[in-house]
Amino acid sequence: MEIGIFFILILICALYLWHSVDFMLSKGPNRVVNTNSNLKTCLPIIRDIIKRYNISPNTTTYLEPGAGYGLIGQALSQEFYWKNPTALEISSSTYTVGFIINKISHSRIHYIHENIFEYSFPKNAFIYCYISTAMINRLYQEGKFDTSLVISLTFEISNIKPTERIAIPGWQKQILVYDFR
Ligand SMILES: C[S@@+](CC[C@H](N)C(=O)[O-])C[C@H]1O[C@@H](n2cnc3c(N)ncnc32)[C@H](O)[C@@H]1O
Predict the structure, then answer these.
(1) Is 175 in the pocket of ligand 1 (CB under 6 A)?
(2) Which CATH superfamily is domain 2-179 in?
(3) pTM assigned to the model
């Protein structure tokens, strides 16, 4: 029993160390690896957007490119029955931690270890993202947002007027809605 607990503790320490080193060594857009959406602030606003923009979750795909541990997607897929709730994460260490969290919490989300630029985006989706300007611009330019409703935390798509801009308290500053449907 004690040996079991000892090994679990060693495993948690190793995972934490790997995750920290991975974060320190990561460059470019992945550098924001440890920053997550504030669930308390963001969830009520996303709920309200779903209602006001007449989204029908059971006929709409939920997609979260750059999902971190997948916590937002997990919360939203507990509350709404999405057609195909999917979250994509590139970082191996973040994905490993998120995979364990999602397994333990019996999350409905399809949590995938995948580069968003190599993923084929669905049409008419509800997309939530918290990724850098460079990344969101690239997804837009590649046409991955066509026919979808996109919510972006903090970062704007350059030179595209958002359908709505919602100010939020704290340094994450704003939530932007882009209705490309
Ligand atoms: C700021 S976090 C946001 C996490 C989560 N979406 C949230 O709102 O709490 C951005 C995540 O995108 C991931 N990411 C960066 N580049 C990516 C890529 N090309 N493909 C998939 N995920 C990527 C990072 O590893 C990081 O976990």
Answers:
(1) no
(2) Vaccinia Virus protein VP39 (3.40.50.150)
(3) 0.88
